Amino acid sequence: MIQDKTLKDIKKTTHSKETIIELKNVCKSFGDNAVLKGINLAVEKGENLVILGRSGSGKSITIKCLVGLVHADEGEITIFGNDITNLKESDLNNIRVRIGFLFQNGALYDSMTVRQNLEFTLKHHSPNATSNEVNQAILEALESVGLEEAIDKMPSELSGGMRKRIGLARTVIIKPEIILYDEPTTGLDAITSREISELILYVQKKYKTTSIIITHDMACAKLTGNRIMILKDGVICAEGSYAALEKSKDEWVRSFFI
């Protein structure tokens, strides 16, 4: 397990002043339900941004808009300097291949072994990779999450925490520049949740990723976030470090930290 001092050092030294992701006045409604009412945020290269909010506040919709899984009704979404709201699908796909997405349940294929899950993802991303390159990439990804021994297991043989780790291995195997984490510690016990949070920091350092982390887990937010934003009623209502927001004069903001 990574030591606390190392974790603090990682959070202090991994990001630089270069904006990789930017949302300007992004709005999204589903029928009469306005979920996003003008989201504005920017994420610097190498930064871990945590987004908090009550259920239904639009956290997951925000990151789905970032990869075009959901199309924003209004506003600009700029990634790597490109406004994706104006891109053709082929151009959008060129950006998507630079982004990893860790879903809540890990989203592993139940009929495939761990090896096959990772191989499928890598071959889809890099169809010209040789067998040796594929094998090396699989071993490196599994080593990164500490699960080399699970390579030939089926997902049904893995615990919830192990499935999350394999899901993360499958995400990092394509060496993404951005990772979007959707509730990475949901359903896990406190010890396993901390291990996943530490892995998020390890991945940030090793692969120099820029990440947005959607979570209800305040321990995860405190450990992983260089910066935290809080969504309320479809807009960002507060922003800052964990320590600053914990001491906010706004009672609603403080309620997250109780």
Can you describe this structure?
This protein is α/β, with parallel strands linked by helices. The chain is built from ten helices and ten strands. α7 links the parallel β7 and β8.
Strand and helix layout:
Elements: H1 4-13, E1 19-30, E2 33-44, E3 48-53, H2 59-66, E4 74-79, E5 82-83, H3 89-96, E6 99-102, H4 114-125, H5 131-144, H6 160-172, E7 178-182, H7 190-207, E8 210-214, H8 218-224, E9 227-232, E10 235-240, H9 242-246, H10 251-254
Parallel strand pairs: 3-8, 3-9, 6-7, 7-8
Antiparallel strand pairs: 1-2, 1-4, 4-5, 9-10
Helix pairs in contact: 4-5, 4-6, 5-6, 6-7, 7-8
Domain ABC transporter: 21-258
Pfam families: ABC_tran
Protein name: ATP-binding cassette domain-containing protein
CATH class of the largest domain reads: Alpha Beta
Q: Which H/E pattern describes the elements?
A: HEEEHEEHEHHHEHEHEEHH
Q: List the domain count as a whole number.
A: 2
Give the strand line-up of the largest sheet.
6-7-8-3-9-10
| Secondary-structure class | alpha/beta
The count of helical stretches stands at 10
- Sheet of most strands: 6 strands, mixed
Overall body shape: globular
CATH superfamily of the largest domain: P-loop containing nucleotide triphosphate hydrolases
Q: What portion of residues is helical?
A: 25-40%
Mean of the pLDDT scores? 91
According to DSSP, the number of beta strands is: 10
What's the N-to-C terminus distance?
27 Å
In CATH terms, what is the architecture of the largest domain?
3-Layer(aba) Sandwich
Protein name: ATP-binding cassette domain-containing protein
Keywords: ATP-binding, Nucleotide-binding, Transport
InterPro entries: AAA+_ATPase, ABC_transporter-like_ATP-bd, ABC_transporter-like_CS
Pfam family, one: ABC_tran
